[in-house]
Amino acid sequence: MIRLAKSHLDIGLFTTDINSHHDFWSGPVGLELDHELKFNQEITQHRYDAHGSVIKVNQHKGVLTNVSPSGFSQLTIAKDISDPQMLKHPGGDSVELVPHGTRGVVGIGITISTTNINALMNFYVEIMGFDYINDTTVKCGDTILFITEGQSGRHVDSFIGPNFRYLTVQIFDADEECNLVAAKGGNVVQAPVTIGEIARYGFVTDPDGNWIEISARASLTGIVPKPD
User: Fold this and answer.
1) Residue 2 vs residues 71, 150, 170: alpha-carbon distances, Å
2) Three-state secondary-structure class, residue 26
3) What H or E segment, with its residue span, contains residue 138?
4) 200-213: per-residue pLDDT in tens?
5) Which of 72, 213, 89 is nearest to 152 (CA)?
6) pLDDT tens digits along 184-194
7) DSSP structure string for 148-199
8) Tell me, which fold does domain 10-221 have in CATH?
9) What predicted TM-score, i.e. pTM, was given to this entire model?
10) Given 50, 66, 115, 155, which residue has the most CB atoms within 10 angstroms?
């Protein structure tokens, strides 16, 4: 089983229209902007808190390549409401607000569409070490992943692209976890690297090519990441 540094998955997206996204996430969705993190001259990450999960809205100042959509087709967020509400963020992805506990969601849920449910279930349970709930549902901490029949993600050279692009799982040792994924037959597409004293992280992809960040963040682990 994967050793979690926090019991919530994060989800990241990219946009060139940060103002519309800020209005959306802080308005109808009702999330608070925790802080911003500038990675380089092109990317600034705006981090919105959702019950401990981070909605990572990455502002891209260059031109976003129009790559194929990922399989991360919908984000579900638990909220103090009586009836579900279906919204779309400015890029067009679905964002569902539901009463707490709906379909087991107490924080966030993420829907992953695919043409091969069995392959994705095997990956997330056997290789990633997430908890099996039923034949189309897994759980990591308190985050629910719903695996549904639909258009699969595609293998792409970079996780940077429009809309929902990647998940983040926070663990204690990025090198160890990436090595474990590789040993089980998973695909490590970016070996771990260190960003200052903030985190050490790598990326793996699921069988459909959806990107998953394996991150050891110092603020969660209490361990300053080793330099490259």
Assistant:
1) 22, 28, 10
2) helix
3) strand 137-140
4) 999 999 999 999 99
5) 72
6) 999 999 999 99
7) EESPPP---S-S-SSEEEEEEEEBS-HHHHHHHHHHTT-EEEEEEEEETTTE
8) 2,3-Dihydroxybiphenyl 1,2-Dioxygenase; domain 1 (3.10.180)
9) 0.96
10) 50
